Amino acid sequence: MIIVADNLRITMPAIGRAVERMDPAPIRQMACACREAGARAIDINSGPLSRHPEEKMTFLVRTVQAACDLPLILDTSSPEAMATGLATCSQKATINGVSLAPEKLARILPLARQNDCDIIAYLLRPDGHVPADAAGRMEAAVALFRKCQQAGISPRRLIIDPVVAPLAWQDGNRQNMAVLEVIRTLPDLLGFPVRTIAGLSNLTTGAPDADTRRRYQKAFLPMLAAAGVTMILMNALDPAILRVAEACQNITDGTIFTWQ
Amino acid sequence: MIIVADNLRITMPAIGRAVERMDPAPIRQMACACREAGARAIDINSGPLSRHPEEKMTFLVRTVQAACDLPLILDTSSPEAMATGLATCSQKATINGVSLAPEKLARILPLARQNDCDIIAYLLRPDGHVPADAAGRMEAAVALFRKCQQAGISPRRLIIDPVVAPLAWQDGNRQNMAVLEVIRTLPDLLGFPVRTIAGLSNLTTGAPDADTRRRYQKAFLPMLAAAGVTMILMNALDPAILRVAEACQNITDGTIFTWQ
């Protein structure tokens, strides 16, 4: 289970301010802290509606690359910012992400093929909504698999995100049980050891306080780990959750166990 | 997920002393504390090799029954103590337990039939060893299912214990991944919603300290919950683990989620 830091989001006030001022220090600091805490990749989220997304992405990529050697995941809904970001990366980055939305397929898939890079694919319906159940997610996975093949992208480039639902949604816990089922069964369904990613922070959207948020994330993370998720997108700077992640890894990774 | 307290073990010094002296106070206190903490059943373990097992079991059952109304699980390898304990219970108790060991089948199964009570069945080989993998456990489950039928016991009386392995065993983590798989697939294999139980304390046998023990139990408990385990046999007096159990319940139980 690979920990991917979700801390570098332009919507975080400190990061947003740093990007506005083109001040690399807070970003460098954040990237280094995530790496030291145990993150093995970092998601650079330049925000959904920001102005000058290309410049911002370039600045973020350059700053993080200068600070540490963590693999980068570029997270933007702007195809232009994505293309610029990919071109700026010195090592191969991962695209985050594509879905069955026609404009995503048309503009993001070609970038994955041109750059021959990994791509995160969300199990959403073409209209952008979350499928009602596990079967709906499986259907989306098969459709995305085919779209990749048609676009000349090896399905082994796919990293599937089954979309963790906020628990507070009306059917949030049922949705998340479906997420676990999908992670468990996707490799059989698609016929190869397809990689998966899950965004842990989504789970606790709307939680009343940090303690409650942490409590539910600590309970759901082991469920994801046991289901066999490949990557967890999470707050890499919460030591309590990191300790749970380490214990999960030690229980599930199939190597000889040692107390630690 | 039902929390079953494993705190009432004669091998715990305070409980062992109380039983030797026939002093009900510490036992009463322990039973009440478990109930208040959220346990919904209590396992009475009169020890594997104790002298006068029948008297001890009778004393324990009477004392706990006088203190609280928790359902009882009688945990003894002595068929005589089991028979006496069952006869002493005013409400129907659960037998813990049977396995494919011939002497167990011969002496414990008839007690389950006579008392028309639930019975915990361990997925062990007839020689008492833990099966090497999930397939070995499934085989044991099917064999136990048949033995029950042959003995005139409804398989719906079965509560299957797939035997959590100490992590520190050479293949401990692989074994525990098999445990999760078995819990998940048993209802399909046996064709009815068979109940399961898992002993969480076994996981951390030999842990170097309480913090490490707690850390691994907190990581494995959600894995068991997501696999659909019916009952967890655990230390009901550890608030940190109980809080994880509550969060798991709230995530997995299929009712409308509310923050708590």
Question: What would you say this structure looks like, in words?
Answer:
2 copies of one chain form a homodimer. Chain A has 260 residues and is of the alpha/beta class. Chain A has 9 helices and 8 strands. Chain A has helices at residues 13-20, 24-37, 53-67, 79-88, 102-115, 134-150, 172-190, 210-227, 239-252, and strands at 2-9, 41-45, 72-75, 94-98, 119-122, 158-161, 195-199, 231-234. Chain A has an 8-stranded parallel beta barrel with strand order 1-2-3-4-5-6-7-8, surrounded by 5 helices. In chain A, helix 2 crosses helix 3 and helix 3 packs parallel to helix 4 (79-88). The longest helix of chain A has 19 residues, at 172-190.
Set out the fold topology.
2 copies of one chain form a homodimer.
Chain A: E1 2-9, H1 13-20, H2 24-37, E2 41-45, H3 53-67, E3 72-75, H4 79-88, E4 94-98, H5 102-115, E5 119-122, H6 134-150, E6 158-161, H7 172-190, E7 195-199, H8 210-227, E8 231-234, H9 239-252
Parallel strand pairs in A: 1-2, 1-8, 2-3, 3-4, 4-5, 5-6, 6-7, 7-8
Helix pairs in contact in A: 1-2, 2-3, 3-4, 4-5, 6-7, 8-9
